Amino acid sequence: MKHILIVDDDVHIGNLLEEALGQEGYRTSRAYSGTEAVMILEKSRPDLILLDLMLPGMSGEEVLEKIRGIPVIVLSAKAETVSKVNLLMSGAMDYVTKPFDLKELLARIRVQLRSAENSSGGVWTYDEISLDTVNRTVSVCGIEIHPTRTEFAILKLLIRHPQQVYTKSQLLDKISADTPDCTDSSLKIHISNLRKKLREAGGKDYIEAVWGIGFKLECRGQK
Fold first, then answer.
1. What is the reported pTM?
2. Under 8 Å between Cβ of 163 and 216
3. What are phi and psi of 134, to 5 degrees?
4. pLDDT surpassing 80 at residue 9
5. Residue 1 carries which DSSP code?
6. Span 3-118: which CATH code?
7. Residue ranges with strand state E in 3-54
């Protein structure tokens, strides 16, 4: 289920979007200020962000500067061409002027999500972990670690959907294209080795074993 973060202090618009997206099968979360949006993004990684510009505290433009590797559709009453161009140059994938047509917005969301799925490039982050899918590198607190091919595939999946618990069978199925040699019997060993490398660099346990279910990405402990 794709996760969409709605960043808008207008409760009516937020409710409208939340209901429409829910009917389309998306999972949603809400932020009512720029500061709240940044706090949410420090702990989770949505698949797409709907971002208003006129926000209390940190503005939408300031929030956009902090977003990396997540498609953003700006929703704004600002209709000036220069505003649209500047935001698209700053990293927004699309710009929709308020008031918007809901069916058109849903179509634009589908386009961006499909484009993101087809793109293998980008730098994905969670807490102090940074994973570069182009150069296939991983760093923790600025320290580069050297995961194996299978460990990289596992981390790539977990970091894309932090907090989501994956069963062993789900993990094996989803990483099979990147690392077909991983087996049910070897999966726990790969996760254990990856967890050790991340902990040695960052001083935390980043991968949590959920008893009886599977694994998820979550920070535990401090240096």
1. 0.56
2. yes
3. -80, -55
4. yes
5. -
6. 3.40.50.2300
7. 3-7, 27-31, 48-52
Residues with Cβ within 8 Å of 77's Cβ and at least 6 positions away in sequence, in order, are 54, 97, 98
CA nearest to 60, candidates 42, 82, 87, 39? 87
For 26-56, how does the pLDDT look when each residue is reduced to its tens digit (9 = 90+)?
Answer: 999 999 999 999 999 988 889 999 999 999 9
Per-residue b or e along 70-103, where b marks 16 or more CB atoms closer than 10 Å to that residue's CB: bbbbbbbeeeeeebbeebeeebbbbbbeeeeeee
What pLDDT is recorded for position 29?
A: 95
In the block, tokens 């981390």 appear at 155
Tokens of 156: 């790539």
For residues 223 and 212, give the distance between their C-alpha atoms in angstroms, rounded to a whole number: 28
- Tell me how many degrees the CA angle 86-113-174 measures, rounded to the nearest 5: 135
Over residues 70-82, the pLDDT tens digits come to 889 999 887 677 6
CATH class of 123-220: mainly alpha
Question: Could you tell me which residues come within 8 angstroms of residue 198 by beta carbon, excluding any fewer than 6 positions away?
Answer: 129, 140, 145, 155, 204, 205, 206, 207
Q: How does the average pLDDT of the chain come out, rounded? A: 86
Q: Residue 94: which of 79, 110, 108 has the closest Cα?
A: 108
Which phi and psi angles does 22 have, rounded to 5°? -60, -40
Q: How far apart are CA 67 and CA 150, in angstroms?
A: 27
Delimit the domains of the chain by residue range.
3-118, 123-220
DSSP string, 59-98: -HHHHHHT--SS-EEEEES---HHHHHHHHHTT-SEEEES
Question: In the structure encoding, which two tokens stand for residue 215, read together?
Answer: 């694994």
Residue type, 60: G
